[in-house]
Batch of 3 targets.
Target 1
Amino acid sequence: MYPDAFIKSFKQRGSALVMALFVILLMSALLLFLGRQLISSSVAVSYEVQGNRAFNAAQSGLQTGLVRLFPIIGSASCTANSTVTFNTPGLDGCSATLSCEQLENPDNSGRPLYALQSTGLCTAGDISTSRVVRMEAY
């Protein structure tokens, strides 16, 4: 009645459907994995950029402290704590908290030694990072 080729192809008809479903599931899993990798890598880059901004804010806070400590005109000022808020395009949303402490100079007792510490804090959206920079000057 039916030729052998027709019976053979009729028996194999379900295996193509199973193979197609397997390939679709495999490709979906691969796309899901790659999507998650992309999201986690972009979050890591965001933290790295925010960390660099916080470091630059801390460095700028130290520079502000040095200008107060060694002014061109006027007297030196070593304030206990002060906060600098930045609104420049690169540091918008960042601030620096500066602390200054006068120490005894082990090399020259007649010349004071100052310890400056600046904590830079940057916030953008739900990402917040901070960096601390410390230096001594006399």
Note: The helical segments are 4-11, 13-69.
Target 2
Amino acid sequence: MANDSGAEFSFLNNRRSAVNTARLPGFGLGLPLAVLATSLLFALLCAAVGHQTYGSLQALDPPTAMDSQYYASLIEEQVSSALIAVGVLASIYAVGLVGAWFWYARRVMGPEVAFRRHVEALKNGDYKARVKLRDGDAFLGLAQDLNDLAMLLGADEKPDERPSAAPEA
């Protein structure tokens, strides 16, 4: 008899997670890699804006005492335009991350709801229930396997019979 401490289940869950990550790296690493790639792009764009602003300021002749006010306003204009550009880039970056999160939630995490409903229907004896996923959703193969299993279970059950609790020994 297995012990009920749950230690073996914890080991199996960790092992299953590692195997799934190795077999389906896109699901385990897809979102973090997308965030890393967009962060790198954002950093490069901010560096380009900073480099352009620095280059514009470096091209100026050194100010003399008479036109220091002119140069101060020119520098302020350059810095404020650079801050606006970085703000626009940050907004685009945030919208991109939200978009990636919605895509991930819909395509990868969304099928969980369909699977839960299907398993609940099977537990209630409804073997005609099917998992319906959208094209492009993750786990389409698993959904088809569950549908095949439901069909086999429905074929094995006679119309008048419902599964009952196993007799105690």
Note: The chain has five helices and no strands.
Target 3
Amino acid sequence: MSEVITDARIRDTEERQRLLKERVLLIGQTLVELRDGLIQELTETKKIVVSLQSDTQRLKELTRNLAEQANNSARKEEVASIQRQMDMLRA
């Protein structure tokens, strides 16, 4: 009788070990899939960040150019205004 109980306990222990092994394998597989997904997301995010940095740099340059053109335009208007005043004085 004790031999039957011992065999049953051994079978139960082996079954628990098998189930634990399956669970560990599933957890490991899930972790690998999650890691791969995260790596892919990080790669895409890095590409987006690089693109945004490039766009930001171009916008800075464009803003700088527009500011310079605005300053030059104001100077041209001032020169034209002075020219008109000079013309009025000569007449």
Note: The chain has a mean pLDDT of 91.
